[in-house]
Structures are given as C-alpha cells and as structure tokens.
Hints:
The chain is α/β, with parallel strands linked by helices. The protein has six domains: about 5-125, Four Helix Bundle (Hemerythrin (Met), subunit A) (Up-down Bundle); about 135-290, P-loop containing nucleotide triphosphate hydrolases (Rossmann fold), CATH 3.40.50; about 295-370, Helicase, Ruva Protein, domain 3, CATH 1.10.8; about 390-465, no CATH class; about 480-665, Leucine-rich repeat, LRR (right-handed beta-alpha superhelix) (Alpha-Beta Horseshoe), CATH 3.80.10; about 690-785, Leucine-rich repeat, LRR (right-handed beta-alpha superhelix). The protein is built from 23 helices and 26 strands. Helix 11 (about 295-305) packs across helix 12 (about 315-330). The longest helix has about 40 residues, at about 85-125. The two termini are about 50 Å apart.
Amino acid sequence: MADVTFIWDLVKEAMAIVGKSLEYKSTRKNLESAVRDLSPRLEKIEQAMRQMDLPTEHIEKLKEKLAENKEALGKHKIRWWSCVLAPYSQTKLDEGLTSLERLISVETQILMLQHLTDILSILSSQGHRPLGGPTNSAHDTYNAGTTQIFKDHLDDGHSQFTVGLNGDSMKGLKRKLLHGEEQVLNLYGLPGSGKTTKARKLCLDLQVKGKFKSNVIFETLGSQIQGNELICKLQDQLSKYGENAVLLVLDDVWPHSENMVDKLRLRSSESRILVTSRAQIRTVKARFPMDLLCKEDAEKLLRHFVRSSDIDFDEPERRKILLQIVDGCEGLPLAIEFIGGKLRGKDIEAFQKVQLEWSRGDSILDSHTELLGHLQNTLNLLVDESIMECFMDLGLFPEDHKVPITALIDMWIELYELNESRGIDAIIFIKELVAMNLAAGIKIRRIVGMDVDNYYNNDFLMQHDLYRELAIRISEQEPVEKRRRLIIDMSNDPPKGWPQQQQSLAASILSISTDKMVAPGWCNNIQAPDAVVLILNLNTAEYTLPEFIKEMGGLKVLIVTNCGFCTSDLRNLELLSSLLSLKRIRLQQVSIPSLCDLKNVQKLSLHMCQVKNAFENTSIDFSKAMPKLEDLSIEYCKDLVKLPTGLFNIVALKSLTVSNCHQFIGLPEDIEKLENLKTLRISYCANIEEMPESITKLKSLSLLDISFCVSLKKLSEEISKLQSLTKLYVTGCPVRALPDSVMGFEKLESVICDEYAFSFWEVIKLRFSGLNIKVATMDISLNWLS
Length: 786
C-alpha cells in the first residue's frame, strides 16, 4: 500500500504550483507553467490512488481541466495582427487559471482529507495503533470513536464544505498549538461563526496529527454542563495516555464552565487543551478571535448552501443579486446557512425578492425570525440582565460608528445608577461586552500605564452590524408607546405603529438619526417627559434642535454626534436652558455658535468641535452659565486658541482636559483660582511653550499630564509646591533638565517619561523609595479591554 502522506504531499505541491502562478503578472506564461508542471504530478497522484483502491474520478476531472487550458493556450495565441484581441484572450486565460486554482485548492483538499480520514479509520479498526497512542484496549476503542467523529463531520453534506479557515488566524493558532509554550489555547467568537468547524479541521491537520498521533479527545460541553463529573471523566481519560502528548478539545465552553480548564492536569508538557467559547476566557493567555468571513469566502459558502444548478450566478446581473444577499449576511456563517437553506432550490425571483427587501434597508433578522430567536436565546443564556441592557444600548448609535467609551459611561451612570467615581462599574460592563464578543474595543492611542487613571477619552467600542440589528430588534419587540429605547431614523418612513397624533411615550432613552434628506416632521408627535438620555446622530451641514426637547424635564444626558465629513452648525441651543435636570453634555464635530445657561451641567465634553465663536466672540461669563461644572474636556478642536472667559472662576471644576488642540496657546495665570482642580491634562498641544508659574498654587492637583507638548522645554522651578501631586506624565516633552525643587515632592508616586529622561528621574528615586518610574510605550490595538 502506498504511503498515505505521499499523496497529500503531491496534492500540496500541485496547490503550490497553481498558487505561485497566480502571483505573477504574465498570465499566459504562468498558465503554461502550471499545465506543464501539474501533468506529471497528477499522474503520480492517480497511480498512488489506484494502488490504494481509491476512486480517481476527481483526478480525471483535473486532467480534463488541464486539457481545456492547454487547448485555450493554443487558441488564444496573440500575433501582431490580432493584438486588438489581447484583452479578450487575457480574460479567457485568467478564467482558466482561476478555475484551476479553485479546483486544486478547495475541492482537492476536501477530497484528499476525506480519503485520509477513511484510511485512518480503517487502520484503527484493524488494530493498527499509531505511534505514541495508548496501549489500553478500552482506550483504543475510544480513539476509534474520536476518529469516527471527524469522519462523520467530513461526510456531512453541510459541514464538509469549509471556507475561510486557512488564513493568518488559523496559522497563528496552529503555530501556538505545535510550538508555543502555553498549554491552554482559547478560540472564541460569535455563535455560528465556525469555531467548532475550525477546531475539527485543526484536529485533522497532518502536522497536528503528526504531533499528537491518535491522542485526540474532542468533548462538546454546551450550556448545560456543570459539576465535577465530567472533570473526573476527562482526567481519567488523560491519565491513560501517560507521558504522551495529548490534544484535548473542549468545544462550546460557556462562562459557568470556565473553571473546568483550571482543574484539568496534563502530564506531558507537550500536551495541549484547545477551548472554543463564545466569550473570551480571560484566565487563558493565548486567545484567538474567530474571524468572520470575507466577502469572497462568504459568496463561496452561500453558493454551496444554495446548491442551484438552474441559475447561472456567474452571469453579471445575477451575481450582483447574489452579492447583495451576501452583504446582508455580514460574514456570519450561521446567517449564510439560514438564508442559503431558505433559497435552496428556489428560482431567481426568490433571490430578487430577498435582494429587494434588503436594498430597502431590511435586515436578515426581519425575514428570519428563527435566526433572531436563536441569537436572542443565546444572549439570554450567556449574559445577565444588566449586560443585556448595555448590549442593547449600543444599538442607539449609527451603524459602523465608533461609540465613545466616555459617552457610554455618562449614559450608564445616569440610567443604571452606577458608581459615580470614574465610571468603574460602567467599565466592568464594557469589559464584559468585549469578553462576550458583543462588541470590539478600539483604542486610538494610549500610553501604557495611564489606563490605571480610568482615562478613556481615546477609547471606543464598535458593534458587529448583525449584533446591532439584533439589539434594535429586541428593543422593538414592545409597542412604540411602551419601549424603553425609542430609536428613530428620520430619513426613513415612520416606524410601524408610530402614533398619528401627539402621544406621551414611556421611553427613557431616545435616539434620533437624521440627514439632509429629512422626512416630513412626523417626529413632532414626540412627547418623552421621562427620557433620561437623548442621542442625536446627525449627517447634515446644519441642525436645529427640535422644540419638543424643552418639554423633556427629566433629561440628564445629551449626546450630539455629527457622523458626516464636515462640521454641522448646531442651532437653537438656548432650548437647553430650560432643562434643569441636564447634567452631562457631549458634542462631537459640531459648530457651537454661542453658550447658553446650563445651570446644573456637571460635565461638558467637546470633541472635534468649532468653539471659537462660543469661547471668544461672546459676552457670556462661563462661570455664570455653568456654575456647577466639574469636568470640562476639549479635544481635537482645531480653532481653540484660548479658554473661555470666566472658566477659572468655576470653583466646582475638578477636571480639565485640553488635548490635540494645536492652536491652543496655553493656560492663563488665572488657573490658580481653581482650588478644587484635581486632574489637569494639557497634552498634544504643540504651541504651548511654558506653563504659568501660578499652576504651582493648585493645592488639590493630584494628576498633571503634559504629554507631547513638544514646545514645552522646562518644568516650573517651583513645581514641588504641588504638594498633592501623585502622578506626573511628561512623555514627549523636550525637558532636558529637572529643577532642583523636584526633590521637594511629598506624595509623588508615579512618573511616565521618555527613555532619555528616565535617568533624570532615577536619581529622584534615592529620595522617594516608593516612586514608580515608567518609560512610555504606545499601545494601539484591538480588543484592548480583554
């Protein structure tokens, strides 16, 4: 019998030949090379398969494809007199090379894996135990059963066809499994994203089987597994392998079963445990996200599930219909399987109907109530009520929009009565959402070490489109007048069940999206006296606050975000003066014409706004307009030159942030009046050359951040007078020497600086034994909250 690995090596060589051909520019030359080099290898593969009495129909199909391409090479030979036909011939040769690649890289791999699995199963049933397997006869039976699991999986018509599992994520997971030091690995992702399929495919990988032989245990846990019975069973099975390397796959592990992993003991350092889960297992260091499908792979998968022989989806118009359906599935294999099953065997009109519904803005969740129910039931089992509420709140923001962490903190503190101090409880909820894959954490920029200060102004969440749709659908399961969250898109028709006359609504959260094509004023019927949060998502050059806002007596949080490319002129701000409960305002990418009285506002956040008119061309005294202001944050405001008149008379102010405002010239001497100021962040402001000496009179200041003020070359000579200062961040400041007074600090605990300045501060440690000095490093990545 021929060596089974010999066939697979030949297949891999064939794949490499075609893959290499696709990388070069000259299509004709590459196709000639592929035809020439593939022919002898196919002969060898066919000969080996005949010796093993395996079917060779697929090899015959490959040989026919080679013959077709050889004929095409002769037919589409370009001469000087037929050069006008070059584009046509190029296209035909490209098609031949691409179809050959698809046949080699997809169908041949699947077929060969199936043959290999059949052979391994036969060998196992005949008592041929691979090297390194356990000698216990009972365990030989168990391993035969485990191998049979993979065979059944490959023979199943739905699971046999796989796409998108050989990318960088798979390579990284495999590399860690074979060569990494961590014994436990975690593959996590959305339900229905293909984690189980990927784990099974990994178990069938030849290199993985070469390391673990037949010592593979695949156990599915699910939501119902609890207690120690399974742990004892698995530990007993593991012990029978002795010192041999074992691969234990724990599939579909839910949060309440996470502790199982810590209780299992592996005898061999080469053994591994692979855990698949819907949420990250944060006690495991090696974690790998399950990627959703790219458009190309999603199309392949949908074609597989549709299985239509009567519709030519390569015809341009029909493929356009198919691709729009693919887009609606958002790369989630579960959604593709749902829609593919519904359309299987249907005529083109059924596809056009789905395309038409989705082009109008309908979602796959509209037409697939069973998919909606499946995902909703999964959420109900996976998260508690408080996390579910926070999950649905993400649907209040526009699609593909980065949701500011600080906006969520402001909302949740007021909605759910969370810990007011720095929004600690809100951050816990956010981390749970990220861990459950219900959102992805994104940081634009962060200096390592500053996260302990709970500074999240540059941090955002993004939600997968399908999960955003799910959050909205769950919110809309109640009648309009009873909904807790009322989500209104004014560019579309009124929602189903929208009141035709003025009616009081029970919503505590109101989200309104509008663009320049605003529909008729059907939102004038809104009465939301109990609303706590109002979110306005704009995509228009100007926007006038609607009159009904002045009737929202219970409003505590206002978030206005312009999602367009240009700044939006915000008008009618004086309406806010009547809202005595309003405590928190966040404005993003809007132009503020003037200030108004906001007597009870405690926090004001201005992000990418135009503030010059409101701050400089006004006679309003800031301290009288907002006497209770405690937190002012001004970031990425390009026209900010100086802070508004009267700001430094606000005794209540505790935190002041000015960041990435490159025209800002600096702080005035009046800053000494802020006797309760605890946090001062003046960062990424290129024009600031010095800090006022009066800053040393801020007796309550505990944190000073002057990072990346690149023109600031020295610290105040009397800086040690900041007797409450515990944290000082000076990264990116060209300070070449420290004033002698730094030895006079009494409470300084932490300094973050550049590498060149580290030696300056090291000397200070002789005076302060508990001083922690860190060299700054920038951290920009996804899933930062994990």
